[in-house]
Amino acid sequence: MDHEAFYKLVVALRNKQKEYFRTRTQSALRESKALEKRVDDEIKRVENILKAKIEPKLF
């Protein structure tokens, strides 16, 4: 995922979170959690890439 796609994902997450806190519907909560998981997964993916650059495998 590139930086623009990540930005759009975070914007979508924040909008869905705001909708949930405004409406308190289960569907908004479910969608917000799904978006949050996508953001978390992308953060973890990038962290793994950065870690591999810092700590290269020896074997």
Looking at the structure, what is the overall shape? elongated
Portion of residues in beta strands equals under 5%
Number of helices: 2
Structural class: mainly alpha
Largest beta-sheet characterization: none
User: Spans with pLDDT under 50 lasting ≥5 residues?
Assistant: none
Intertermini distance:
28 Å
Tell me the number of strands.
Answer: 0
Question: How would you concisely characterize the structure shown here?
Answer:
By secondary structure, the protein is mainly α. It is built from 2 helices and no strands.
Describe the model:
By secondary structure, the chain is mainly α. 85% of the residues lie in helices and 0% in strands. The chain contains 2 helices and no strands. The chain has helices spanning 3-23, 26-54. Helix 1 packs antiparallel against helix 2 (26-54). The longest helix is centred in the C-terminal third of the chain and has 29 residues, at 26-54. The two termini are 28 Å apart. 3% of the residues are buried. The model has no long low-confidence stretch (mean pLDDT 95).
Please supply descriptive tags for the structure shown above:
mainly alpha; elongated; 59 residues
Topology:
Layout: H1 3-23, H2 26-54
Helix pairs in contact: 1-2
